[in-house]
Amino acid sequence: MDKKILFFLLIIVVIILSFLSIRYIIDTTAISRLQVRIKGVQIQELKVSYAKLKLFIEMSNPTSWDISQLSTDYNIFIASSIVGNGSIALTKIPAQTTKEASTTVIIYFANVANAVLEALTKQNFNLAIRGTLHAKVLFGFFSISQDFSSTYSYL
Asked: What is the rounded distance in angstroms from the CA atom of residue 69 to the CA atom of residue 24?
């Protein structure tokens, strides 16, 4: 093979790898700066064996880069006890914007302490979610994850 062609191919490979590396750093930086907060909670149904809650979650992307193919899963805590889990499907958050999502979760009381049931009945409790954001980067070829948490006082 001609040395000029080999040199040209080497330059092309270096440029492509540099581009992919920079893109990966940009995507991971944007994910690490994503802010998640509980905007509100509604008790939709309160029965003897379960409660159905609607969570309003706000995700803010303060960076200059879009975040695409974002999904999340999280655990729900009431009165410091894990009471359930939830998830939000894939979404895109453009640069310097905020997206709101709502999700309904059902909390079954069978394995939950009486303190949690009392807190829900009195409608005075702190609800927390802790989870992991998942995003596809580098045009969907790789996945990265970022932990998050948020707390809301229901009074």
From this structure: 14
Nearest to 36 by CA among 106, 82, 86: 86
CATH (domain of 115): 2.60.40.1820
How far are the Cα atoms of 8, 65, 126 from residue 4, in angstroms, in the given order? 6, 37, 67
**Tally of CA atoms within 13 A in the half-sphere of 61 that contains its CB:** 23
Secondary structure string (H, E, C) spanning 31-91: HHCCEEEEEEEEEEEECCCEEEEEEEEEEEECCCCCEEEEEEEEEEEECCEEEEEEEEEEE
Neighbours of 14 (CB within 10 A): 10
- Report pLDDT digits (tens) over 55-111: 999 999 999 999 888 888 888 877 677 778 888 887 789 999 999 988 888 887 775
Q: What are phi and psi of 130, to 5 degrees?
A: -135, 135
Neighbouring C-beta atoms of residue 10, cutoff 10 Å: 10
Count of domains observed in the chain: 1
DSSP 131: E
Range of the domain at 56: 3-154
pTM: 0.66
